[in-house]
Amino acid sequence: MLLVLTTGGTIDKVYFDASSEYEVGEPTVPHVFRESGVTLEWRLLPLFRKDSLEMQSADRQAIRAACEEAPESRILITHGTDTMALTAEALRGIPGKTIVLTGALAPARFRVTDAVFNLGLALGAVQSLPEGVFLAMNGTVFPAGQVRKNREAGRFESI
């Protein structure tokens, strides 16, 4: 079985016309998995609804604790892209777990979004990679500690 942890981020953002702002809404993973015909057994654990720029070290510790305590050995985490690489580094060294973080540069609820593609990449990666922590973005899987977000180019890249 796969554990899906959600922490918020752009992937789950919704636009509210009344306030003209984005807010983090309900996790979109169940909808994407259902629409994509995913038959793999999985469990959803929503931890936060935060923009990743609001994440603190205590939040990263809570994510780590959830990963350590989970009976599942394979964990997919949806996360905001701005600090995803920091969280991935904070999760390194958890024995017996394959952890893949992913997110989106545009909300999953938008017609044009990278969310569905990134979730598919992460789902394949978490099932096939060895123990460790990885990021799955822009069609590439990166080991934790070896990736950064290039905000100007709007993509992730190796460092």
Automatic annotation (TrEMBL):
The lineage of its organism: Bacteria, Pseudomonadati, Verrucomicrobiota, Verrucomicrobiia, Verrucomicrobiales. InterPro entries: Asp/glu_Ase-like_sf (IPR036152), Asparaginase/glutaminase-like (IPR006034), L-asparaginase_N (IPR027474), L-asparaginase_N_sf (IPR037152). It comes from the Bacteria. Residues 2-151 form the L-asparaginase N-terminal domain. It holds the Pfam family Asparaginase. This is Asparaginase.
